[in-house]
C-alpha cells in the first residue's frame, strides 16, 4: 500500500449529499471568506484571515502535504453546488513505525448543526481505514470546542487524554484534547 500514490491519485469522494475535492487555486476566494469568520477559527491554529494571500498560502500548504504524501485537505461542497461550505482532511499521515493520521475539519457557520459532518466524517473515516489502510485515526481538539468533541464522540472516537501546552498558537500555549479511533482489522 503506497499511501503517497493514493493521496496523489483521484481522491474526489462523495456522500449522498456532499462532494470532497482536494483544495485547488480556484478555491482561494471562497476559502478566504470561510476562514475570515472568527467563529470558524476560534478553536483552530489560525487567526481569522485578513488578506487574500493567506488563503493562497493555505492552498499551497494543502497541495504541498498532498504532494509529500502526508495528507490531504478537501473542499466540502453540496453535490452539484458551487460554493465551498467547509474543508476537511488528513494531516500528518504516518506509515513508518505506525499507521496513523490526524483528521481535521471546519464548516462555515451557516452549516453548523445540520448534520453535515455527521455525513462527511464517516466518509473520511472509511477513506482512512480502507484507502489509506491506517490503523489509528486521531483528532486534536482545543478545550472548549464542545461541537467538535460531540461530533467525534458520536462517531466512535474515544477521548484519550489532554496534551498540556501542546501547541503555541496566536501567542499562547494551549492544551489539546486527543481523540482516537482504532481499526483492529488493519495489521
Ligand atoms: C466542529 C464542527 C465541524 C461541528 O459541526 P456540527 O454542525 O456541530 O456537527 P454535525 O455536522 O455533526 O452536526 C451535529 C448537529 O447537527 C444536528 N443535525 C441536524 N441534522 C442532522 C442530521 N441529519 N444528522 C446528524 N445531525 C444532525 C444534530 O442534532 C447536532 O446538533 P447539536 O450540535 O445542536 O447537538 C463545526 O462546529 C465547525 O466547523 N466549527 C468551527 C471549526 C472547528 O472548530 N473545527 C474543529 C477543529 S478540532
Helix and strand topology:
Elements: H1 3-8, E1 13-14, E2 18-22, H2 28-35, H3 38-41, H4 52-67, E3 72-78, E4 84-94, E5 100-107, H5 116-131, E6 136-141, H6 146-154, E7 158-169, E8 172-182
Parallel strand pairs: 5-6
Antiparallel strand pairs: 1-2, 2-3, 3-4, 4-5, 6-8, 7-8
The structure holds coenzyme A (COA).
Residues 40, 43-44, 105-107, 112-118, 141, 145, 147-148, 151 line the site of coenzyme A (COA).
Describe the protein.
- The protein has helices spanning 3-8, 28-35, 38-41, 52-67, 116-131, 146-154; strands spanning 13-14, 18-22, 72-78, 84-94, 100-107, 136-141, 158-169, 172-182.
- Helix 5 (116-131) links the parallel strand 5 and strand 6 (136-141).
- The mean pLDDT is 96.
- Helix 2 (28-35) crosses helix 4 (52-67).
- The two termini are 12 Å apart.
- It has one domain (3-138): Aminopeptidase (3-Layer(aba) Sandwich).
- It is built from 6 helices and 8 strands.
- The protein is globular.
- An 8-stranded mixed beta sheet has the order 1-2-3-4-5-6-8-7, with helices on both faces.
- With 187 residues, the chain is an alpha+beta fold.
- Bound molecules: coenzyme A (COA).
- Coenzyme A (COA) binds at residues 40, 43-44, 105-107, 112-118, 141, 145, 147-148, 151.
